[in-house]
Amino acid sequence: MTEPSPRSPEDSGATTQDSGATAEVTRADAVVVGAGLAGLAAAAELAEAGRRVVVVDQEPEQTLGGQAWWSFGGLFLVGSPEQRRLRVRDSEELALQDWMGSAAFDRDEDHWPRKWAEAYVHFASGEKRAWLHSLGMRWFPLVQWAERGGYLAGGHGNSVPRFHVTWGTGPAVVEPFVRRCRAAEQSGRLSFLFRHRVTGLTRSGGTVDGVEGEVLAPSPSTERAEKTSRETAGDFRVQAPVVVVTSGGIGGNHELVRANWPADAGQPPAEMLSGVPDFVDGLMIGHTARAGARVINNDRMWNYPEGITNHSPVWSHHGIRILSGPSPLWLDAEGTRLPVPLFPGFDSLGALYHITRNGHGHSWFVLNRRIIEHEFALSGSEQNPDLTGKDWRAVLRRALPGATGPVEGFAKRCEDFVIARTVPELAAKMNALTADGAGKELVDADALARTLVDRDREVASKLGKDLQVIATSQARRFFTDRAVRVARPHRMLDPKAGPLIAVRLHVLTRKTLGGLETDLDGRVLTADGSPLDGVYAAGEAAGFGGGGVHGNRALEGTFLGGCMFSGRAAGRAAAKALGD
Ligand SMILES: Cc1cc2nc3c(=O)[nH]c(=O)nc-3n(C[C@H](O)[C@H](O)[C@H](O)COP(=O)(O)OP(=O)(O)OC[C@H]3O[C@@H](n4cnc5c(N)ncnc54)[C@H](O)[C@@H]3O)c2cc1C
């Protein structure tokens, strides 16, 4: 690789880069690979500590902020004023009990993940809200109850509601970090290099001294997160004593998802939807491993079983996750109810494993109009225009009868929804949707009718033994659930609550729970546990801290916070190390 005159970040901005046959070379104190939330958090810390930072991203400028922009903006906070106003009694001890029960750390590799978990729960119970509040973030007052668990006290799940939706959703989570980085850019301490794709870490004298890669041709695409071309227009290098890897997970790369599929989860389905854009390709994790980093827990992922096909896709295989209240019946591909406690919103991974272990790629929610109106929400900033647009009037309409506009839109336009007046008609439509080449009908109409009638008898008894019916009634003791999330228990076959609805659910790839192993400073570790000199990692690429802060299962709303917390830690530690 040839090296024309090296440039400093001050003169290496995205607009002035030269490209072509020769490699462009930039020098800085630190290079951050990935301009998602974790990268922005790390870069802001470095720049504000007076370091010269280059942030490199393979995507064009309009994708700045990565996945977080698309997120629902749900944050795991413990003991918040929002919880207290809703009379939710939470504590760090209870949150740690829930985290450890969900993580179920069970490997030698879990040394640093466990330490990160303790630190993260402490952060979420302490300074997290005040820090983010000082950066301008605010939260919707109705805290939500995600991942309810349904096991014993020491098992998986949130004992209390902790999912705080950021007012303005994903874009409002990203905004303060973009603002800080743009301010640093203005003052000349930070520059962005978009359409720069890192393909490796470079070394001199045995030490990592930067990154190298390809300058990608300008993409004709103008929409955020659309798939962009990989056509190259030249090479580049950034020379820096500090490299921070914040390149995200593997969820957009189904080949990698399949290759790392957990051994105890059966086979990955032949068809899966993507809950993340194509740029979440996971390749940078491999490049960092080739430089000596240790990747751990790569079979731990947080994919969802409740994906539906996006009728207006932005990225490849674009799927949307349904966030459902607890009332819909969850049936496997053959129409049998999932076992206790695999009710909607209780144990995502448990439900996913149950489905894929049985060899099926899909399952069903069966519900009725009244339930969809109360209980269906969709994950993603663009699916919640009222919250994303900070439109109070539109948000208040959620408490009125009727589904939200986007849910209505999916019910009408998404191929996975079927609607019927009677059970035989519903079963026929379900079977028509999934008929294989041999025309085999998977759902038996009589068995489906029995399932619904049995469940309705339990509701009518007002007491009953059906744990889903009991859990649904129990949920309504909490204000948010009663107000906007959980329908009053009623007979599924009540004609006044109809028509009946069935939704075919696909496996949706999303988060990567394992990744680059790091210590509490975000330093990337090698196979013998020693740090890979000058290399840091944060966000999803580092399993949100340590190489897998969530262990086996997550409590939800913990990913964005994990990016901000681990990005901040890596940025601060790297800035300090540069000063030594
Ligand atoms: C629809 C949706 C809803 C979500 N909702 C929530 C929620 O409510 N709560 C929550 O906690 N989490 C949520 N998440 C998860 C959360 O948004 C992500 O886990 C988090 O934003 C990941 O941030 P990151 O910075 O680690 O990675 P990313 O956002 O993936 O950013 C990585 C960046 O690195 C770049 N990159 C990758 N490889 C290279 C390379 N070789 N060279 C140069 N650049 C590279 C990519 O282009 C990308 O811009 C949601 C995610 C989605 C998609």
Layout of strands and helices, then pairs:
Layout: E1 24-27, E2 30-33, H1 37-48, E3 53-57, E4 74-76, H2 81-85, H3 92-103, H4 111-125, H5 127-134, E5 163-165, H6 169-186, E6 190-194, E7 196-204, E8 207-216, E9 232-239, E10 242-245, H7 254-259, E11 273-274, H8 283-290, E12 295-296, E13 301-309, E14 319-324, E15 329-332, H9 348-357, E16 362-368, H10 369-375, E17 376-378, H11 385-388, H12 392-396, H13 405-413, E18 417-420, H14 423-434, H15 445-460, H16 467-475, H17 479-485, E19 500-512, E20 515-516, E21 523-525, E22 531-537, H18 559-579
Parallel strand pairs: 1-9, 2-3, 2-10, 3-6, 10-22, 11-19
Antiparallel strand pairs: 4-5, 7-8, 8-9, 12-20, 13-14, 13-19, 14-17, 15-16, 16-19, 18-19, 21-22
Helix pairs in contact: 1-6, 1-18, 3-4, 14-15
Flavin-adenine dinucleotide (FAD) is lined by residues 33-39, 56-59, 63, 66-68, 70-74, 197-198, 246-248, 275-276, 279-280, 283-284, 379-380, 511, 539-541, 557-560, 563.
Protein name: FAD-binding dehydrogenase
Keywords: Flavoprotein, Oxidoreductase
GO molecular function: steroid dehydrogenase activity, acting on the CH-CH group of donors
